[in-house]
Amino acid sequence: MTLASRLGTTVHLSPLLMKARRLGLGAPGDLERLAVKRGLRYYDSHGDSQSGSDHPPDHLDCASEEGLTNEELSIALLSLTAPYSQQRLRMGAAMLAADGNSPDSLAALALRERCGTVVRHIAECGRDVEPANPFWTNLLKLLPDDISASQTEALPHPSRFVAMTGLTRHGSINLKQWIRPRKTVTQ
User: Fold this and answer.
1) pTM of whole model > 0.90?
2) 56, 88, 96, 101: most buried by Cβ count inside 10 Å?
3) Cα–Cα distance between 105 and 93 in angstroms, integer?
4) pLDDT tens digit string along 117-126?
């Protein structure tokens, strides 16, 4: 079942997923492993690859920043034509907030890929978690306001996009931090 079918919309041919396949990212989990390689360690439960090795598969190296940008990776993870996966949606939300991503580019990609509804839901959640971050407000201004409550039922709850504390040394405090990729150190 695709995300499109869960949202009650039609599937289209995704130029972005076709580009990813041309770069060798067609196997299940390739986009997710690339996100981990690009610093999204929060969702890495197997090392840098599914095999548990510390080295990602060689074909992930071909999808360098010039081949597939973080903006494109985030939208590819949120693609309506991909199989429905809450984990994939959460990873897409995290990559959406990667340092250096442009709201203009993200909005244009989201509209071209027909996942503006999904990106809008995530941006609204981001704005609620990080109200002082202009990134979310700027992104929301560029997306159509056509999301319905029935569509958001298929999307992750806002709490799934954040890391939350419960008990800290200062007592019981509910702190929320948006999950995003950390910059990786190249050797």
Assistant:
1) no
2) 96
3) 15
4) 999 999 999 9
CB 161 within 8 A of CB 126: yes
pLDDT digit string, tens, across residues 104-161: 999 999 999 999 999 999 999 999 999 999 999 999 999 988 765 556 677 888 878 8
Beta bridge partners of 149: none
Residue 30's Cβ-count burial label (10 Å; 0-12, 13-18, 19+) is: buried
Looking up tokens 């996942």 gives 115
Q: Alpha-carbon distance 97 to 119, whole Å?
A: 11
List, in sequence order, every beta strand (DSSP E) within the chain.
162-164, 167-168, 171-172, 176-178
End-to-end Cα, the chain, rounded Å: 40
- In this structure, are residues 63 and 23 in contact, taking their beta carbons and an 8 Å threshold? yes
Residue entry with tokens 């196997």: 27
Is 93 inside a domain boundary?
A: yes
Structure tokens at 35: 């996100």
Range of the domain at 138: 3-178
- pLDDT tens sequence across 34-57: 999 999 988 887 554 444 444 445
Residue 71 belongs to a domain: yes
DSSP line for 80-100: TTSBP-HHHHHHHHHHHT-TT
3-state secondary structure of 18: helix
